[in-house]
Amino acid sequence: MKVKFLSLTIILILASLLAGCLPAGAAKAKLPTLKMLSTTTCPACEMMEPVLKNLRTRYKGRIAIEHIYLEDHPDVARQYNVRYVPTLIFSDAKGKEFAQEIGYKSLDEVLAVFAKGGVKIK
Question: Is the pLDDT of residue 119 over 90?
Fold first, then answer.
């Protein structure tokens, strides 16, 4: 009886430790993602802010938006070989990147890139 109780206790402790190690949102369903790589001094990046806000609001739960400031994350700039900002990285729900765009894009242009990549958001 004591062995079973001890085993169950160990299992519960391990489960709680593992739960704390999972990345945030790991249990959630994956969503198509738009990453905007930008700097704080980029005018075109500033122009993209309302587009990102519109996407976050209008397509909540259907698309994930990440905004990464390269001053804070120079490793990301190297990872994506960023030469100009904003750089937009498009990924499907499985995390596979299918497009990389440079410069300002309107809401319709962003949605068109997703559609061209076979990702349905609407």
Answer: yes
Predicted model pTM: 0.75
Strands 33-38 and 64-69, by their bridges, are parallel
CATH of domain 33-116: 3.40.30.10
The two three-digit tokens of residue 45, written as one number: 């990046």
Evaluate the CA torsion angle 23, 25, 31, 37 in order and state its sign: negative
Ramachandran sector of residue 61 (left: φ over 0; alpha: ψ -120 to 50; beta: rest): left
C-alpha to C-alpha distances, 69 to 16, 37, 94, 106, nearest whole angstrom? 33, 6, 24, 20
pLDDT digits (tens, 9 = 90+) for 52-66: 999 999 999 999 999
pLDDT in tens, 102-116: 999 999 999 999 999
> What is the pairing mode between strands 64-69 and 97-102?
unpaired
